[in-house]
Structure to design on (199 residues):
């Protein structure tokens, strides 16, 4: 399996100045929300010049997207490392859901959900978020096929799309319809979805 650090890390983040800018921007976004965050405030918090920020990020939208992408990449890297330790595809989906819920309940995403909930919804729906999120599933799907957990005829691309949609819906809507807060209920739900959907 590919090294997750190599798979997900953005080359731009190897620049210490970029990290400083993103740290300052993340602080501002988490405290004020996206709408109230300005390039001037990011410069003040990070003790940076506005020129250095615009040199690396052409406008506020580009900076915000980079902050959200870095946050997602960190989550993906950490989650991928833990997925390697899980035995079954169901266990891996459960891990991604529980980690996703924990991430959404604290830090930047939790703060944004309070200040600008529509921003969080749009983040989950963005093509970039989708593409990055499905990128680590194919190898896990192929392994599950080879072990007979799911049907050998299952299309890998379709399965990764299915798993992504399942995981995101369970992270975003834990209380809609069936109550799936209890770990045993959640596991039974995921088992039925995965083994009937991909079996």
């Amino acid at each position: 399996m590919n090294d997750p650090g190599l798979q997900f890390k953005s080359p731009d983040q190897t620049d210490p100045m970029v990290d400083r800018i993103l740290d300052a921007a993340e602080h501002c976004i988490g405290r004020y929300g996206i709408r109230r965050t300005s390039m001037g405030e990011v410069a003040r918090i990070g003790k940076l010049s506005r020129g250095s920020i615009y040199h690396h990020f052409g406008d506020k939208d580009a900076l915000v997207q980079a902050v959200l992408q870095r946050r997602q990449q960190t989550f993906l890297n950490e989650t991928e490392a833990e997925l390697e330790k899980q035995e079954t595809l169901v266990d891996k989906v459960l891990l991604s859901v529980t980690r996703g819920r924990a991430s959404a309940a604290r830090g930047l995403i939790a703060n944004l959900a309070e200040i600008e909930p529509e921003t969080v919804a749009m983040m989950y729906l963005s093509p970039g978020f989708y593409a990055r999120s499905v990128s680590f599933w194919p190898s896990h799907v192929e392994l599950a096929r080879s072990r007979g957990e799911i049907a050998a005829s299952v299309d890998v691309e379709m399965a990764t799309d299915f798993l992504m949609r399942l995981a995101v819906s369970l992270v975003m809507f834990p209380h809609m319809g069936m109550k799936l807060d209890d770990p045993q209920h959640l596991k039974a739900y995921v088992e039925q979805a995965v083994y009937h959907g991909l079996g």
